[in-house]
Design brief:
single chain, mainly alpha, MetI-like fold
């Protein structure tokens, strides 16, 4: 719609279009809901899951600042402020727990993160579709094995008369119960993790490889580029954004090492190298019934993880213009 005016001399003035009022947020949501009702209904279970099991329990963080006891309850327990945080930082085991967490996380990141990428690149080079499916099935299977079963297999293979020791004895190694030796714990943890997850983690990179334009490879072949040069100049740049995003997510998980596997594998002989923050929270909270102390340690762990994700994302955005947000 336009509106015209007449000046004092009777001459018409150029028509000025009337600006439509921009609809409000709730109006836009209502309109979009009417248009995509099915999608919103499908999203309800996901939102409910995160609200109930992710954001709901966050109210329990308050017990990290209280002397919580079940008898007094959540609201009746005494407020003690930063008492438990100070106790953790002054704890005799704090340096050991922090050192082990950082060491295992860094070693695991350095060795396990590149393997799915390499596996995806190798699978992508296979010409036989049948053989490709066989390789994918074999590498995916360990991911679906229960952690309890995997740890039982590791224990049986690494005992003094286990399969690994029997193989190593042919090369002159003296058989030992490996999980009773602190020096063997981290290699066993990392190698078994690579075996268990490399196939499953390669799916993301295989999907990213399918998005690379095949015409780029055709043009490279015409220019005389071999497979290695195609890998360097086409494949890896095409995977770069996916690799960066996955690296940011992996760094965010560094302080959240899976305690289930470590608890099932470690013992008092390997606490020196195997005890990490998550297992320390388990022992203090569930075994010693010190809920407030373990909540404080867990909150510290979460805050550090958030700082790592935020910092890595910011650096990535500045350097490569690729980020999560």
């Amino acid at each position: 719609m336009v509106k015209g005016n007449i000046n004092t001399e009777g001459a018409p003035v150029a028509a000025v279009p009337l600006q439509k009022k921009k609809p409000g947020f709730f109006q836009r949501v209502k309109k979009d809901f009417a248009k995509n009702r099915e999608l919103y209904l499908m999203a309800i279970p996901i939102l409910a899951f995160y609200l109930i099991f992710r954001y709901g329990p966050m109210f329990g963080i308050a017990i990290a600042f209280k002397d919580y006891t079940p008898g007094k309850g959540f609201y009746g327990s005494n407020w003690v402020g930063l008492k438990h945080f100070k106790a953790f930082f002054n704890d005799y085991y704090f340096p050991r727990v922090l050192r082990n967490t950082i060491y295992i996380s860094v070693v695991n990141l350095l060795f396990s993160f590149p393997v799915p990428i390499i596996l995806a690149l190798l699978i992508n080079e296979l010409k036989s579709k049948k053989f490709t499916r066989i390789v994918q099935t074999i590498t995916y299977m360990p991911h679906f094995i229960s952690v309890v079963v995997v740890c039982s297999m590791i224990i049986q293979l690494t005992v003094k008369d286990g399969g690994i020791n029997q193989v190593l004895s042919f090369f002159g190694f003296k058989p030992v119960t490996m999980l009773n030796n602190p020096d063997y714990f981290v290699p066993i943890y990392v190698i078994s993790g690579i075996w268990q997850n490399m196939g499953w983690n390669s799916i993301v990179f295989l999907s990213a490889l399918t998005s690379i334009d095949p015409e780029l490879y055709t043009a490279a072949k015409i220019d005389g580029a071999g497979r290695f040069r195609q890998l360097i100049h086409i494949t890896l740049p095409g995977l770069a954004s996916t690799i960066i995003i996955m690296l940011i997510l992996q760094i965010g998980k560094m302080f959240n090492i899976g305690h289930e596997k470590i608890i099932l594998l470690y013992n008092e002989l390997t606490y020196e190298r195997a005890e990490v923050i998550s297992t320390y929270v388990y022992r203090k909270g569930l075994l010693q019934f010190n809920w407030s102390y373990s909540a404080a340690v867990g909150l510290f762990n979460s805050v550090v993880s958030f700082i790592l994700v935020y910092s890595t994302n910011k650096i990535s955005k500045k350097v490569s213009e690729t980020s999560l947000w």
